[in-house]
Queue: 2 jobs
Job 1
Amino acid sequence: MHIREDANIAYFLRTVNRCAGEVLFCTQEQDQLNLKSVLSQFIFATLTKEPDILFGGTIVCKQPQDLAVLEEFLTEK
Amino acid sequence: MEEISGRVALLREMISSVSSIPLTEMDMNFQVVATNAPDFEMSTLFFSIDDMKNPQPVIEIPDLSAPAIFTNSLGISWLTDIAYKDGQAERIYLLGPVFLDGYSINQIETRLNQEQVSIPVKQHFMSIIKQLPIMTMSRFFEYGVMLRCAITGNKVSTNDFIYPYLKPDVPEDVVICDSGNSAYLVEQQLLKLIEEGNLAHAEARKRLVFSAEVGRLADGDNLRQAKNTVIVNITLSAAAAVRGGLSADIAYYLRSEYIRRIENAENLAKVTEINRAMMDDYVRRVHRAREANSVSPQIRDTCEYISLHLEEKLDIHLLASRLGYTDYYFSKRFKKEMGIGVREYISKKRIEQAKLLLRSGNDDIQTISDRLCFSSQSYFGDLFRKEVGMTPGEYRAVNVEK
């Protein structure tokens, strides 16, 4: 799953904090950010200036039920 | 409100002539009214991450009486203030983001190396982080004082600054002293208030403590710097309290206790809280000691001597001869002034010391009994039980349980 281009990143990150399991942001360059870590959240936030990386990366939920929590921010494209 | 906006705009311009720290004005829906932040969207995003969540807590404080300070776990700080009209909050002002020292940036870099992050992403992130201004805490707080003045026309002390993530019933001080000669004067005045046991100390402190730094006591580490500053303050305060009439053993026991608490403090706000509590504690104790002092300097001196020599043999003859008195005259005078006999007083002091050793040390009971010159462990035990209502072993067990 990818981040939607119209997603509110601040709201998305706050919602990630409500997820039961880990939520990872992975890129083709082998970045793997655990979005429950504060530092990773900051790194992720700065990627709004690098849309290719931000929207090209994938969101991986370790707990399948968290996908429903984040549904409104994610897209399969 | 236009008048306030105008004053803040002037302040923004003045600050920007010497620093790159942004000053933003927002309406109560967090829509930007005016800003000089080069990248306000990123600043807002940073502000919304982490333990701060969003600026909402600021507007939840009814009638914000002073600027509020936020520092997130990356060491990025903001100062916020609110302008009111007819009791209604109308504008939010945000000063920051800013690093209050370069150490935080180094720490971020170190932490970043432990993450699974590619070089381009690392470089991109650090380039944004390094764009944030760095300034001293004192300068930052001075801007906060100026901002409040621009909004309300009133002066505010940095002591009054609010740390919204602390318990609201614990007002905080700011751990700052002035630099150079004025630091010496402020320090001397504060210590004099402790020495006098002046209960108006807290009020006086607000007037006295201002700006700048006591000197660089820890390279780059803001929290360490604050801890070192307060530890120096604790040491000076303890000495002032002794000069003011507090017994040396109490003053130095408190010193150790407060230094221990400072070392365990996790953030600047806690350090400031402990600093304030420490100073208030010393003032109150000196005040009590002075009030109780209808005791002559000679007998007070004897009491201090006893306190400092509890682990040595003490007898009436030794104490009397220190003052040039006969044993009989000394005993009579001591009892008259203290309301208690010399031997009984020494025993009580030794029991107090034993309680301290039982609480905080690892010595066994026999060792404590020997250290405090009790003739036997059973005599020590009997006396302890009589004074405290439990045996030394029970006392230690209860203390450990706590």
Job 2
Amino acid sequence: LAKRRLDRRPPATAPEPHGLRKAILLLERKTKEEIWDCRMCGQCILHSTGMSCPMRCPKNLRNGPCGGVLVDGNCEVLPDRPCVWVQAWEGSRKLPLWRDHMLHLNRPVDWRLQETSSWENLVTRRDAHAPAGWSAFEDRA
Amino acid sequence: VTEEPRSGLHRVLLDRRFAVTAELETTDSADPASVHRLADALRGHVDAVNCTDNSAAHPHLAPLAAARLLLDRGVEPILQLACRDRNRLALQADILGAAALGVRNIVCMTGDDVTAGDHPEAKPIYDLDALHLLRIARIMRDAGTYVSGRPLEQPPSVLIGAVENPFAPPHDYRPMRLGKKIEAGAEFIQTQICFNVERLRVFMARAGDLGLLERVWVLGGVFIPRSARAVRYLRDQVPGIDVPEEVLRRMEGVPPDRQAAEGVAIALELVEQVRSIPGIAGIHLMSIKNREAILRVIDEAGLHRGTERIEPVRAG
């Protein structure tokens, strides 16, 4: 019960990062931007999406590809780039773990967490927050 | 458990009758007669009519207004809701407002990107994706709250639909994504335009293997081309549509004055083939400014319902 209450704690706007927190933020940004072209949404689901960052999708989709994927598997908005979700699907088949996460329904983005550290948000559980109506429905199922 | 139908379309689907829906031509007129005319032409021929939401990212008469104008003329609307132009506040407000105006079917989708339309410089919204919107519609209807948890005084009783494109990559993932949409809240599906029947057959078989077809009604999308140019437009300008060379060759193989008839012939063949796929619960007909052809296909394919006017729908 205590854990649940913690999970559902609404995200306070993160205080301006200083010192160690700033170092973590910079480290996360530097490494994840370099490796995954991360967009710092602050609520990372990379492991659920075959290590393909869904925020690179021009439509910011969190639950799979739109219907506009071109016949060659490229993006309809950026036709010279492969669809982020085609990469996610292929990537997820190669992962030893989390393959079934491609079947999970991911929550709507909490836009307040943009540009904050998803590592910090994971530890503080700030990224586990869902709107009350959403979590109540999940609990019911 | 006998389910109480939420809409006329829902009743057709529950009765296991073959459903026929069509897309409303977009209008760019402030005159309600522009929609009333279209409604009069379609009334009695289809079970419900889709009011598209700024389709192909071009603004048109608002779908909510079009839906209400259809109701005025006794035609059942299906309100399309795209995530491109509105955030979660506006979408929830529209679902509630639509139900209050008498709309009983909605279809949730991501929406074509603004770069596909005539306002490519616009800010795309995409606050939610289609699956979020499906789940939120379900929360509003079944839990009677906004996604925030704030209660509704009267929840919207609507049949909730989604779209799916079996013809776009990654093909192996598409049936699973259908499963995700059902889990999120979808009760019926209208597919993207089908020219590649084999692809749809495989998709449906896979969906059947996953046990999805007992949980959702799938309406196959069929387009009626008026000219070879229209086919080329679909292939080159509309992302995600798989147009086999053969279709284009057939249209180009007849003189321009006979292309419309050839388009109807192609559509009739597609309707027959799609209809024969196990699990297909209906057909969704689309065209570009070609409503006579829609009526011809319905008539010649024997889809004619001959249904009478729906009960006059009160707001609320």
